[in-house]
């Protein structure tokens, strides 16, 4: 995988390698070059990492950035505070779904908005990308709904329980 690092005022985004994901899954995060705040790894994050590992085993390494989690690194502490990533390359319609999480201690500071903006800008350079989706966002998750709106995602539809968002790229 390329040594891509995305940078904003307060954050670095670094795509995790296949081996990094394995280490998170096994609980051996001390083997990863960047310190990861243990509070950033939720049960659902571990579950998503297991799914990402299975997908990454089946795709060429040169597109792993589209399948892996990107570690959100706080530039001040030089510590991993969250994860963000896509669920693969753009589909036939040119859309890709994004997912993310951040340590509770780093919420309500605009950091996830910063991270999502960074990753969306990186992804927008792919000529096949027409839009980024955020599916099954719980209506009760006010933080995530706010992040998506702050990043110019539009509410595409909703159900009784979930909101579905879209960011048009081209």
From TrEMBL:
Q: Which residues form the N-acetyltransferase domain?
A: 10-154
Note one Pfam family from the annotation. Acetyltransf_3
| InterPro entries associated with the record | Acyl_CoA_acyltransferase, GNAT_dom, N-acetyltransferase
In which domain of life is the source organism classified?
A: Bacteria
MF terms (GO), sorted A to Z: acyltransferase activity, transferring groups other than amino-acyl groups
Q: What is this protein called?
A: Predicted acetyltransferase
Source organism per entry reads: Clostridium acetobutylicum (strain ATCC 824 / DSM 792 / JCM 1419 / IAM 19013 / LMG 5710 / NBRC 13948 / NRRL B-527 / VKM B-1787 / 2291 / W)
